[in-house]
Amino acid sequence: MSWSCRQPNSPMNRWTRHFGPFALVGLVCLVMFMQFFQRSLLGRTLLAAPEEERAVELSEPPGLGPVTLAAKLMVREKYLQLGTEDAPKHDGGEEVQKELDELSREAITRPERLRLGILTAEMVGAQASLDTFRGLAAEATPEGEFARDAKALLNFYEAHALADAALSGEAKPEAAPVRPVLDGQVYDGLRARHSWFATLAATYGKGGYDPQRDWLVRGSHSLIGFFLLRGVLYLGFFVLGVIFLIMTIKKAREEGFVPEFYTTSIPGEVYLETVIVFFLSFAMMLGVSVVLLGQSDAWAVMVSEVLQWSLVLSFLWPMMRGVTFGELALDLGLESGQGVGAEIMIGIAGFMVTRPIESVVGIAAAALEEALFGVAKDPGGVAMFRQPLTESWWPFIFGALGAVVWAPFIEECIFRGALHRWLPAKLGPVLRVLISSALFGAAHPYGLAGMLSVAAGGVVFGALREWRGSLIAPMTAHFLNNATIVGSQLALLKIIE
Questions:
Q1: Cα–Cα distance for residue pair 469/430, rounded to 1 Å
Q2: pLDDT tens for each residue of 108-162
Q3: Beta bridge partners of 46
Q4: Do residues 495 and 219 lie in contact, with contact meaning Cβ atoms separated by under 8 Å?
Q5: HSE of 302 in the Cβ direction (CA atoms, 13 Å)?
Q6: Residues facing residue 289 across a β-bridge
Q7: Contact call for residues 431 and 405 (beta carbons, < 8 A)
Q8: What's the pLDDT tens digit per position in 325-382?
């Protein structure tokens, strides 16, 4: 069998021509299955966490785990409602209790449950947290560091519970002692092990006038500014997108759509093989990710990231089949088009156009999904698999790099580059865009609404590829689309942190 791709009727090309489309469809289905299988595993729960995990007493400083982020957000939201000068009210409420119940599924280890107890006292009242601290004090390793923390907080909140009862009229005023203060040495130990939560405990019952309490709730008003700014930006993007979309449709009707799709004489089969190699490698990466589920060490994150970034090696396949780098770059659209600056500006306009299209499609698809499958029920219990480095910024940083660097480059080269290059010219631009967009949406591990929304964005990226020839415009639009989402998430995390 000839290895070179330059002979259209070589055995390798004929095999790809006849069986390649079936292999691609099969691999896309396999990738979809594996992604949904992985999601189902991540969504599986246990009635109770394993005892060995519940018995962990090692207290690492809280970082970006779900309990920590939710606690900081809940406390700041409460102060926005009360005003930072007021002493906090510990009346809880049905919604607050629901949030605390959901967090109890995330708080597995003893330090996590201790921190949840501190949050419960803050949101509902000291009395509501006593059972948590009594249980932790009873099960902790005797004379251990954690046992001292649990007993100190139990005594601290018992005294506060008496004071709260007196202030609310539930007990005689003379029965209420002066509000206690954590011993300096005890507080220093708690601060070293529990950071923000230690200060939250030490300032229980105080208002925003307290310097330590002010440090806790700092950033509350930044949340309001953030949500207002994000709303204005998203609305602006939506309006500009509608304007650009109308202008584009009007121009296309007046002047017609003229594709700028230049290719070499290389047979298209080699680019179908490239897409197949990508999906095959993607499926193998997903297989490794499934095997790594449950691993909580940093190396598991690094292995997953290295495997994801190694998918760029898929583009070596055409060169192994005899395609030169220059030919590969032209066929994939890795060229300057009408000028880098002009292509970037077109890409920015394309990003704006994706806003209203993705929004409308996403809302409609979500309504359809709910009508067909109903609202997903909470499975209850605790997650079977915990994600590694949950208290670290590293997963967020890796995820951000993948979204704003890896995805715009690799996905555009595959779906708008190699796939468009292989799809026969006789299909025309519309069918090429629709086919590549459908596969683009299918490759993302979301529900029906998410996949359709991604496919809608793929329609815009594909149209840019057909119109401009160069991948610079769709890559720019893709980058801005992902960067807007990721940047918003990271900004919110930073404010909450």
A1: 15
A2: 888 889 999 999 998 888 888 999 999 999 988 888 888 899 999 999 998 888 8
A3: 382
A4: yes
A5: 3
A6: none
A7: no
A8: 999 999 999 988 888 999 999 999 999 999 999 999 989 988 888 888 777 776 667 7
